[in-house]
Queue: 3 jobs
Job 1
Amino acid sequence: MIVGFDYWNVLSHYPRQVSHLMAVHQAAGDEVHVISAIGHGRIGTVEAEVREVTDVPVVHEVVFSHTRESPELKLAKCFELGIEIFYDDREDVCRLLAANGILALRVPRGGRAGDEAAERT
């Protein structure tokens, strides 16, 4: 299996638990990736943050002009990488991935921010 994890509100907010899930996937022989949708001002910043909490082999940034682009950008990257399972906090991302044959597992985020408002830009 090829498995993907979102960074913000998933790995960033549950580093111990998500790092454990990553390790379990890797121990099972799965290929693990982190995919983070970010604004132009954050280009090149995600990998260093990920490396502070885990040693997952591959980190990808997909860059949006507006947070509403995040679902389509993540879907395209999942297709490119052959990802079959993806963990994300955004309901709209999970719905789109699931509609396209990817098992999308939603990680609830704290607070009341909607999907777009919860994204870092």
Job 2
Amino acid sequence: MQTLISNARYWLAIAVMATTCTAFAGDKTIPGHLVKTPPTEHSGLTVSGKNALELGKQIPALDGYQVRVRTVTMAPGGIVKDHGHKSRPGAFYVVKGNVTEIRGDKRAQITPGQVVLENYGTQHWVINNSKEDAVLFVFDIVPTQ
């Protein structure tokens, strides 16, 4: 399992080709009820460009897994529900707009050109609390379906 995680991190780093790190910062624009009870449903999302690549032939240790790449457009007020990454490392890159990522009581404003890495310990949700669409390039490694 450790080899699987190490290989997944390696391919994740190559796929996103970015080194921008994000520091958590305060954001008082999140609706209070969502801070107390994280959202359990997606809303205001459009997903396109759903592509996947089987990894087993490239990396035998990753047999049964695939790299999944999508573009997610978040309307103003759009939400990616609270979720974890225990079995699916990933990343998202903000192409356009601004979103806020919430991890427990920590918030980070993510702007164009920034990347958020999601490892096995990540539990988070994302909101577009701006007045324009946000476009995210989303990459993750998931079990083959």
Job 3
Amino acid sequence: MRRLAILLAVAACLHAQSPAPAAGREADELATRMLQLLESTAVAMPGLIEASAPVKQSAQATYSTLQRTPRSPAVIWRFISQMKAYVALADSMPRPEQFPPTAEQQFAELREDVQRMQQYFETVLRGEQQDEQQKEADPNDLRHYAAVNSALGAPGTMPRVVFLGDETTEVWRLNEYFTGRDFVNRGIAGQTTQQMLGRFRQDVLALKPKVVVILAGSADVAAGIDAKQTEDNLATMSDLAKAAGMKTILASVLPVNSYHADQDPKFDMTRTHPPANIAAINRWMEGYCANPAAGCSYLNYHPVVVDTSGMMQTGFSDDGLVPNSKALRAMSPLVLDAVGRALTGLSDAAPDTKKRRLLPGLTK
């Protein structure tokens, strides 16, 4: 018993010295621990399990939401309030004469964890305020590529191609997948077509490419933006490129899946990115580019990334949304073919061997 008491005392000391969680992962671990303490402390007091059942149920539901939106101030505050309600309820109930020291220690830890979560909430809230101020000052994140654009210089003898998009484009290391080419990455994770349109002049037109490949619309679907607005934004970018003498390739919005949702509810991508909405935008793009007057071509990635259920292949994404290196390797020949047609003026017919010889440099 003496040794256990010493260990508990040391653990309490170390816990008290630990800082407030500074990252989402630490906060997630803290929230998980708080739920564990709710379970373990309830059994130490007669009647507390039954009395706290509604609070426990609400806290567990909020925790699930917190998994999907770890930096939502409203969700964090709700979780804190529910844990405070549990502590207040426990304090209002009579304790048995022989109250276990371990339970006393766990209640103390829970109170400290509530304070740590409160500090995390305040940190997130300050960050949200700073983010909002930054978004108000630069809603399209023009600063993201401002410096590298200035250092890029004019195109050389190799025709330049700009890839504009969201996280799928941003994670695509173009210099590794397409060697010996002037392929410029201008993807920003989470951006909508409206934000891309807002930086189109700086991040595309000013770089003077021959071709722009636009992979956009996923964030629009997730944000519930009206499909007509997404279509108008894509059409406007295509028109701007055409007026500048550039070719536009509109790439299909990639499919998603929910195959990893059993690991974490936040990976339920078919809920946040309804496949029907994705399909509607892709049908519009295909029809829009079929009109020669539009001056664009449609690049459909789906044949190489979907499974028999029409979802993103399970091995092609680690979260059900963003394609991994395996998927990007499968997509690379398609984009090379599309860029080759745009640069050489070939038709949208099936690619031939001559065109493939014009486009070396695909990493195996």
